[in-house]
């Protein structure tokens, strides 16, 4: 009997080990993908989530009007991202460089054109003139190594059917599929 019990115990141990290996293998892709996105060499997904390129009201170059022109950047991952050295540019080459700012997981920061006091949710380019063209332009985000991260276009720069444009204010805007620098 004892030989029969030990054989049964060995079989149970083998079945348990195989089951644990199968469960571990099934969980591997999820944790590997998560590690890929948020591990060393952080691959968190940053997107330009919204753009207010035409400040509401009169364009009178007041600081209030300038700060109603903005670009929002959202971290769609769960991990915080250090934006220090990232840049946001327009088609004319106006560039804003982020300073010491950590964008938490699932958080958004709004980049205003005018002058103001930076916070965790709002930063200011400290400009005295409008940056984003009302008719057509592209906002492009680059990482701290100068590599393309995301862009958002409106007007003729956006081609209907590319990216995931949205209709707003009677015009299309969205990601420009061919815009990689």
UniProtKB/TrEMBL annotation:
Matching InterPro entries: Lamin_tail_dom, Lamin_tail_dom_sf
Any matching Pfam family: LTD
Gene3D superfamilies linked to this entry: Lamin Tail domain
UniProt feature, compositional bias: Basic and acidic residues: 159-169
Entry's transmembrane regions: none
Region (Disordered) residue spans: 159-181
Keyword check for tRNA-binding: no
Keywords: Signal
Signal sequence range: 1-32
Taxonomy, superkingdom: Bacteria
Species annotation: Streptomyces adustus
LTD domain segment(s): 31-156
Name of this protein: Lamin tail domain-containing protein
Chloroplast found in the keyword field: no
SUPFAM superfamilies for the chain: Lamin A/C globular tail domain
């Amino acid at each position: 009997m004892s030989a029969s019990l030990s054989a049964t115990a060995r079989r149970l141990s083998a079945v348990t080990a195989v089951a644990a290996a199968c469960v571990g293998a099934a969980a591997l892709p999820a944790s590997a993908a998560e590690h890929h996105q948020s591990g060393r060499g952080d691959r968190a997904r940053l997107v330009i989530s919204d753009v207010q390129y035409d400040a509401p009201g009169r364009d009178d170059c007041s600081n209030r009007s300038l700060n109603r022109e903005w670009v929002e950047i959202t971290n769609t991952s769960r991990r915080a991202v250090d934006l220090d050295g990232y840049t946001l540019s327009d088609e004319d080459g106006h560039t804003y460089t982020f300073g010491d700012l950590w964008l938490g997981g699932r958080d958004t920061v709004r980049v205003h054109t005018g002058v103001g006091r930076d916070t965790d949710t709002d930063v200011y380019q400290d400009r005295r003139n409008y940056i984003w063209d009302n008719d057509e332009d592209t906002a492009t985000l680059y990482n701290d190594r100068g590599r393309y991260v995301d862009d958002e276009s409106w007007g003729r720069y956006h081609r209907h059917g590319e990216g995931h444009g949205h209709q707003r204010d009677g015009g299309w805007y969205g990601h420009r599929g061919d815009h990689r620098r």
